[in-house]
Amino acid sequence: MKNPQPGKKGASHSPGSLQRHFLLLVGYVTFGCAGDPNPAAETIPFDAARTWRDMETIVGFGERPAGSSNLEKLRNFLEEELRAVELEPRRERFTAQTPRGPVDFCNLVVDLPAGKAAAPNPPICVLCAHIDTKGGMPFRFVGANDGASETAVLLELARQLTARGPTLPIAYRFVFFDGEESVRPEWEGEDNCYGSRHHVRQLEKSGMISRVKACVLIDMVGDADLQLTVEKNSDPALMAIFIGAALKIGLGAHVGGRARALQDDHIPFRAAGIPAVDLIDFEYGPGNSYWHQVSDTLEMCSPDSVHAVGRIVLAGLVDVEKWVQTR
Predict the structure, then answer these.
(1) Residue 210 CB: number of other CB atoms within 10 A?
(2) Residue 97, in any domain of the structure
(3) Angle CA(101)–CA(106)–CA(108) in degrees, nearest 5?
(4) Who contacts 127 (Cβ-Cβ below 8 Å, separation ≥6)?
(5) Structure pTM?
(6) Which of the four, 14, 82, 171, 291, has the lowest number of CB atoms within 10 Å?
(7) Mapped to the 3 state alphabet, what secondary structure does the chain carry?
(8) Which residues contact 37 (CB under 8 A, 6 or more apart)?
(9) What pLDDT does residue 137 have?
(10) How many CB atoms lie within 10 A of CB 124?
(11) Do the beta carbons of residue 210 and residue 201 sit within 8 Å?
């Protein structure tokens, strides 16, 4: 992710553009399923304390660029935690050509089947985040927000949805992407999103892509001053679902940030025709000044923020589950 040049990661849009996104929300509520009642935020089971401890553990591994031993430590940790709730993670290894030559990458993929009452070959919703941090920095970059926060939230979502397993009307796939960050200093061309591009190609090759009806990407969600961006490259209906969920559970203060068109791991899914949404706060510090800086530490993040995002996602998924069954 993450080039703040116009037209790339940080292109912003006018207040009128933001207004149109909220009009889309109103239209979606009128459409139907977003109008169903959701539980209050405090009743949604998302363990913020455990998520924060996971963030601390992840940051404790240090810098985690693609191909590093620290990133391998993180993968081992994730596998252990996922297996603790009887999930079966598998490694999706691949080698990609980068501006600095071939690099070995490895995604982690976990499938959670639908419940027994679900229809045959139920639709799949992909929940994903990237686990790598930006490499080649002139300082120690631990990526508390950009790397650790989304990984910890996705891990906790896997735990919570696994607990719902017998009643799930659809299947879920959790993907922890390697190689989201560019190898070069700037985000240019295809020097980014290595893991998500590879995974989408695998979905296409296997034929499973026909069952994937939605992709929800989580990125940079630990900011102590959390306000999720209205991301313009996201599917409007999915964006409306999660904005609506936040409003209904009393967390509307954390959505509706500055409208931007961003490049991130959701783009390969969109290019393949899969509705995808990027849940991201791309205003990290004044003027996004903490992004890819030494200041991206736990001190700039908050357990309240990851708690809010976890609850927004879980509340929104109630409506996503209905939405994908109509597609």
Answers:
(1) 12
(2) yes
(3) 160
(4) 154, 157, 158, 172, 173, 174, 175, 215, 216, 218, 313
(5) 0.91
(6) 14
(7) CCCCCCCCCCEECCHHHHHHHHHHHHHHHHHCHHHCCCCCHHHCCCCHHHHHHHHHHHHHCCCCCCCCHHHHHHHHHHHHHHHHCCCCCEEEEEEEEECCEEEEEEEEEEEECCCCCCCCCCCEEEEEEECCCCCCCCCCCCCHHHHHHHHHHHHHHHHHHHHCHHHCCCEEEEEEECCCCCCCCCCCCCCCCHHHHHHHHHHHHHCHHHHEEEEEEEECCCECCCCEEEECCCCHHHHHHHHHHHHHCCCHHHEEEEEEECCCCCHHHHHCCCCEEEEECCCCCHHHCCCCCCCCCHHHECHHHHHHHHHHHHHHHHHHHHHHCCC
(8) 248
(9) 85
(10) 24
(11) no
Q: List the CATH number of the domain containing 211.
A: 3.40.630.10
Q: Between the CA of residue 37 and those of 2, 170, 277, what are the distances in Å?
A: 35, 19, 22
Total tally of structural domains belonging to the chain: 1
What would the pLDDT profile of 50-76 be if each residue is shown by its tens digit? 999 999 999 999 999 999 999 999 999
Task: Please write the tens of the pLDDT for every residue from 21-37.
Answer: 544 553 444 344 444 55
Q: Find out whether 229 and 259 touch, Cβ atoms under 8 Å.
A: yes
Residue 29 included in any domain: yes
Nearest alpha-carbon partner for 162 in 213, 90, 87 = 87
CA quadruple 117, 203, 319, 327: dihedral sign = negative
Tell me if 4 is assigned to some domain: no
Contact in structure between 193 and 264 (CB atoms under 8 Å): yes
Is 1 within a domain?
no
Domain ranges, residue 59: 11-324
- Torsion on CA atoms 21, 315, 165, 275, rounded to nearest 10: 0
Place of tokens 């409306």: 240
Confidence at residue 33, expressed as pLDDT on a 0 to 100 scale? 43
Q: Please report, to the nearest 10 degrees, the dihedral formed by the alpha carbons of residues 118, 240, 261, 185 taken in order.
A: -50
